[in-house]
Every structure is written in C-alpha cells, then in structure tokens.
Backbone:
C-alpha cells in the first residue's frame, strides 16, 4: 500500500510540475515538435538559398526585392516550395512596425492572403523583433500550423521582412 501511495504521489507531483511550467511559461506547447518539423527547417533552408541567389534583400515603398527581383505578387518561389515540401510559404515585408504578406500560398476565403499582417501580438513577431527566428505552433488566420519564421536582413543589418514556411495541423 505504501509503494502504491508513493507512486501516485510522484505521478501527481510530475503532473503538477508540467502544469506549473506551462503556466509559468518556461515550457511551451508552441515549441512542440511535430512530424512536419524537420520538413519545415528543410523548406526554410531552401527558401533562403533560392532568395539569396537573386541578390541582396532590400525593402522600398512596401516592396521587397532580392537583387532586382520584386517579390510582391510573385508566387514562383512560394509555389515551388509548396510543390517540393508541401505546406505553405510566405514572404512578409516590413511596413512601419507591422509585417505584411506580399507573396504567399496561405489562403483565406479562397484567395491568397496578400495584404494581411503577421499577428502583431503573436510569438513569431516577438522573436523577429529581437532579430531571432521562431519555430513552433501558431494560429494563422484561424488555423493551427507548425511553423518557421526567420528575419530577412538587408546589407545594413536591418530586418526588412520575414521568411515563413509551415504545415497545417488541421
């Protein structure tokens, strides 16, 4: 009986510890790994490599360029990534303190979600504002995705946009 009580007590303590960590924010379900996580990192590497082949990143008047290639409404790379890796891909450009979708295969209402902002209060933008990447599970326009976001940096070291790749969990 004593062994049973000890085992139940240890199990209860472990469960309370996990709940406490989640509440305290030191462990996060947003950082969970899914079956798509490795594919997301592979797709992100490909997205950054293909963009770099076009030239240096720059933003000008709400437009994102790699070299002389304007990315706004250019879906060639995001659609190619979808074909190769599945999932979704997006380029965001910085407009003031917001980041707007300018090339994407994320759909909303049957159309590409062009002109929609990255969630201004989400974990991805918080990481990007610190100059860091974010990989984890987030809500994108009402659907849950396993995602990767990385800053697009110009030659002056400024964040001018965001690379995004992800897989729907629904």
Residues:
């Amino acid at each position: 009986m004593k062994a049973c009580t000890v085992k139940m007590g240890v199990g209860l303590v472990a469960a309370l510890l996990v709940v406490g960590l989640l509440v305290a924010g030191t462990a996060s379900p947003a950082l969970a790994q899914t079956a798509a996580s490795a594919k997301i990192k592979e797709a992100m590497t490909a997205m950054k490599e293909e963009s770099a082949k076009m030239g240096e990143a720059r933003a000008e008047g709400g437009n994102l360029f790699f070299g002389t290639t304007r990315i706004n409404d250019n879906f060639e790379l995001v659609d190619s990534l979808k074909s190769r890796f599945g999932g979704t891909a997006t380029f965001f450009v910085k407009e003031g303190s917001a980041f707007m979708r300018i090339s994407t295969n994320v759909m909303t209402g049957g159309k590409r979600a062009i002109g929609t902002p990255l969630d201004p209060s989400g974990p991805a933008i918080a990481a990007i504002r610190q100059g860091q990447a974010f990989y984890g599970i987030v809500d994108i326009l009402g659907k849950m995705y396993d995602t990767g976001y990385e800053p697009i940096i110009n030659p002056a070291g400024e964040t001018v946009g965001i690379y995004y790749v992800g897989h729907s969990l629904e």
